[in-house]
What does this fold into?
Amino acid sequence: MTLAVALYLITILVTLCCAVLLLRAWARVRRGLLLWSGLCFVGLTIDSFLVLADMLLFPSLDLYHWRLASVAVSVSLLVFGMIWERI
It folds into this structure.
């Protein structure tokens, strides 16, 4: 169980670091794709936290649909950003 907790926490920290770095870069250079990528990673951080909550904190609750919705919104933001920026 300890290894699972460590893995979930590392996943949360890595996605949060990616989100922070992308949003800091966007604040500096104001490139649209950095904003959309940063927002995508914010959503992925939320999803990682929901995985931790679903598996360990609240095992009796089913957060599958919330996790799926957060990933769908995150990826949709990134796809929208790519289309908006015409990549």
User: Anything to note?
Assistant: The helical segments are 2-29, 32-57, 64-84.
